[in-house]
Amino acid sequence: xxxxxxxxxxxxxxxxxxxxxxxxxxxxxxxxxxxxxxxxxxxxxxxxxxxxxxxxxxxxxxxxxxxxxxxxxxxxxxxxxxxxxxxxxxxxxxxxxxxxxxxxxxxxxxxxxxxxxxxxxxxxxxxxxxxxxxxxxxxxxxxxxxxxxxxxxxxxxxxxxxxxxxxxxxxxxxxxxxxxxxxxxxxxxxxxxxxxxxxxxxxxxxxxxxxxxxxxxxxxxxxxxxxxxxxxxxxxxxxxxxxxxxxxxxxxxxxxxxxxxxxxxxxxxxxxxxxxxxxxxxxxxxxxxxxxxxxxxxxxxxxxxxxxxxxxxxxxxxxxxxxxxxxxxxxxxxxxxxxxxxxxxxxxxxxxxxxxxxxxxxxxxxxxxxxxxxxxxxxxxxxxxxxxxxxxxxxxxxxxxxxxxxxxxxxxxxxxxxxxxxxxxxxxxxxxxxxxxxxxxxxx
Length: 444
Description:
Belongs to the MurCDEF family. ATP binds at residues 109-115. Keywords: ATP-binding, Cell cycle, Cell division, Cell shape, Cell wall biogenesis/degradation, Cytoplasm, Ligase, Nucleotide-binding, Peptidoglycan synthesis. By secondary structure, this protein is α/β, with parallel strands linked by helices. Helices cover 35% and strands 23% of the residues. The protein contains 17 helices and 20 strands. It has helices at 11-22, 37-45, 57-60, 77-84, 92-96, 113-126, 141-147, 159-163, 190-198, 217-225, 273-288, 293-302, 330-338, 361-367, 379-385, 398-408, 430-442, and strands at residues 3-7, 26-31, 49-52, 65-68, 89-90, 103-108, 131-135, 152-156, 172-175, 209-213, 231-236, 244-248, 251-256, 259-264, 311-316, 319-323, 344-348, 368-374, 391-395, 414-417. A nine-stranded mixed β-sheet has the order 7-8-6-9-10-11-12-13-14, covered by helices on one side. Strands 15-16-20-17-18-19 form a six-stranded mixed β-sheet, with helices on both faces. Strands 3-2-1-4-5 form a five-stranded parallel β-sheet. α1 (11-22) runs parallel beside α7 (141-147). The longest helix has 16 residues, at 273-288. The N and C termini lie far apart (59 Å).
């Protein structure tokens, strides 16, 4: 009996444990932190052994294969020991994929992953396909493979999940964009992070498809020097293609396999230039899956968007409050500020992942009237923008951030929570941060 050890007792860990048990592995779950009660219950009911707040080496280093949760860095001591012992350390996606015959669509990129994944899922589900949603979002992929029988999965894949694949390949891969993010996990080497993203296509063959942003410099540079075996489908806001997706005279055009799809951009529910790219990528998948044009049109015009991503919360005294808590890096905040067309009070800050704020400078000069710093250490933000905006305030909780913003905002302004940072200094995660923002706005 093969021994499967799982590091991390969260959603992906518990899902993998259930699938492993079902497939006859001897399963053990080890979490260096605490395991949530509901997950403990699931493990116990299924007769799966677990431990928390420790890693017992003799119970881990006897594994045949180890599934590591994406949040655990490669440089953690237990992972180093496993690598030294030549025990394969893989991701949930790699473990689960061989146990399903379903077609998988893998979506990665520094920004827009969740929106594109949700939109792709919405397009396929509205067309009546039997489709599951997983990866970095929602219910664990492995758990669904164990319990459900989907024909298609739409998977949001982070670079950490892609680092743990060996043989996995999506039938359709999307690479939305690449900008410096999580460099703390890649020895601060941008090339390492870029290579990580391109792992999504490494096992693809000429039977598969690779959809990518032809405007993205990092993607273009990599593709110049490396060969992609899959059939490529580019999308762009500025170029046009015989085979690909583009914008021309306020219309989105998609030409794939000699078939054309055209839709007025203003009928697309998602706002902003970056969302046109997300829509081109998702629609390309829908075309490859042979979904009817009328269904695609309807789905693109009624899609609701994603919580915590440029989510309009409330308008109070003619001030619009927007929750973009999911903006955990500079590039995501760039999109948010770029889509503001009123004077903006910007709530920013948190745990910095090696941010370079200079690329926001022009947008901040043009659009931001006041900055509210919401973090334990705001020095870098103050150094960057202290001379650029008239008002700069520091707070250490969400209620104060929202109250101060209300004082600073006038009729017709926008208050934008777009932190450009991780949330772990003051919040549990970006969802908690976004929910606290919405609660504080509702209490105004």
